[in-house]
Amino acid sequence: MSYSEKIHLVADISLIHTLAKWRYPGAWNGYGMYGDPSLYLDLARLLEHGRFDGAFFADVAGTPLFNGSPNDTVEWGVAWPRHDPLPTAIAMAGVTKHLGFVTTMSMTYHHPFNVSRLYSSIDHVTGGRIAYNAVVSGFPQEAQNFGYDTTPDHEWRYSRAEEFLEVVDKLFKSVDADAMLWDHETGRVADPSKIRRIDHEGEFFKVMGPLPCAPCPQGRPVQIQAGASASGIKLAGRWADFQFAATGSLKGDIALRQKLDDAAIAAGRQPRDLGVLWAKGFDVVSGPEEAEHNRQKMIAAVPEQMGIVFLSQWWGLDGYRLDPARTVHDTIAEVKELGVGPNWSYIDNAVANTEPTTTIGEYVKNWVAPPGGWVGTPEQIADMIEEEHHALGANGGFMIASKTSVPGGLSRFVHEVVPILQKRGLYKTEYEGKTMRENLCVY
Question: At what angle do helices 288-301 and 360-368 cross, to 10 degrees?
Answer without folding.
Answer: 110
